[in-house]
Specification:
alpha+beta, Alpha-Beta Plaits, 4-stranded antiparallel sheet, GGDEF_dom, Rev_trsase/Diguanyl_cyclase, membrane, transmembrane helix, transmembrane
Length: 255
């Protein structure tokens, strides 16, 4: 007669085995199949299932399983523990990748709007002073129309690299739109901010020869010009449009 305790254990392990196969292949087929993980899971939990089955029927048959049952349990448990360790590492890597996709712009590698706002929230918690700088590339549509969208993408990527390289370790950079960027700058004076503007404008103007590419820039200071992200962004946007208009007026005067 089968012992109820052994039957319950076998059914539990068997159902767990079936469930783990379903979960394993559902997740791995969606995010990339890993044959080693599948093999370890099936081998480890399969041996444990076999062990519980032999243990359940040991009273019904004349066969003496001897050391077979403990071998199944021991080897199966070791393999399954290895699977759990590798699976946990795989899930951690997958979560890291998903988090990166959620907070980073895939084309430029900069923060996206969500990622940048998270950086902003962390920074304002320190109550330290900082600047918000906004950037708007000029002539993006003209370059797209004249040279194609691949060239337009190159223009955006090159500008993003220039901004990030110039800011360096003094802040964080995000892409908020097609050709619009935002930066948070720490440990900077207004004089250094103006120097930074000059260098970025100069480098952007040389992205494409003879196209006179330009970038409009504005900035705001935390607490002086606003305390929320929207307030600082709005103030910096106004300065950026003033910068754009000044350049247009200069261009018209020198026609």
């Amino acid at each position: 007669m089968i012992e109820i305790r052994k039957l319950v254990v076998f059914l539990f392990v068997a159902l767990l085995f079936i469930y783990m196969i379903w979960i394993n292949f559902r997740v791995l087929n969606k995010f990339g199949h890993k044959k080693l993980l599948s093999a370890l899971m099936i081998s480890g939990l399969g041996l444990i299932t076999i062990g519980t089955f032999f243990d359940m029927i040991s009273n019904l048959v004349d066969m003496k399983f001897g050391t077979l049952i403990p071998i199944c349990f021991t080897v199966g448990a070791i393999i399954f523990v290895i699977y759990i360790i590798l699976w946990s590492n795989y899930i951690a890597q997958m979560m890291s990748t998903l988090n990166e996709y959620a907070h980073n712009d895939p084309m430029t590698g900069l923060y996206n709007r969500m990622g940048f706002e998270k950086v902003f929230e962390i920074k304002i918690a320190t109550q330290e002073s900082f600047y918000i700088m906004v950037f708007d590339l000029d002539k993006t549509k003209l370059i797209n129309d004249k040279f194609g969208h691949l060239k337009g993408d190159q223009y955006i990527i090159s500008a993003a690299r220039i901004i990030k390289d110039e800011i360096g370790k003094n802040g964080f950079v995000g892409r908020t739109g097609g050709d619009e960027f935002v930066a948070l700058l720490e440990n900077m004076t207004e004089e250094k901010i103006e120097d930074l503007k000059f260098f970025i404008k100069n480098h952007v103007s040389h992205i494409f020869n003879k196209q006179n590419t330009q970038i409009s820039i504005g900035y705001s200071k935390y607490k002086e010009d606003g305390e929320t992200f929207e307030e600082l962004l709005s103030f910096a946007d106004k300065k950026m449009y003033e910068d754009k208009e000044k350049r247009k007026e200069f261009y018209l005067k020198n026609q």
